[in-house]
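User: I'm new to structure prediction. If I give you an amino acid sequence, what do you actually give back? Let's try with this one:
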Amino acid sequence: MSRVEYQIDINAPVERVYEYYTNPDNIKEAWPRDVVKESESTTTSKNEPGSEMKVKGEYMGRQAEMRLEVAEKEPNRKLVTRQTEGPFKRWESIQEFQGNNNHTHIRHVIDYELGTAAKAGNFVTGSQADDKIRQGLEQAAQTVRQKLES
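Assistant: Good question. You get back a string of structure tokens that encode the predicted 3D arrangement of the chain. For your 150 residues, that looks like this:
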């Protein structure tokens, strides 16, 4: 199993950062276009435990769709999503938020394991996947920072 982590500080209230950063409709706006093509909520409630979203993109060098379910939510503090269907053997995204006045610290961790098809076909190595996911986390965080601090 692999773990990729990225942390960033954003000069905006935690409520605003949490709302934007965890909205499934904003994933495609923040992540690199070569990774995420589409993202949307597939249930009427967004970011409530049990709610689901789908993210279409390029994973491990192939077009694929990932379905995620909200596993845990603490408003303005934490959101955990897990893959229920998709290209990874295991995928868990943990987003943690700490707010202080007009300042928010975000810690985003993704724990994942490549699927057997990717390993067998040598589509991508673990370090390549780590690099791609890390680049995605960094770009998404920087995009959110630019949007919310401007």
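You can read the tokens as a compact description of the fold. Here is one thing that stands out. The chain has four helices and seven strands.
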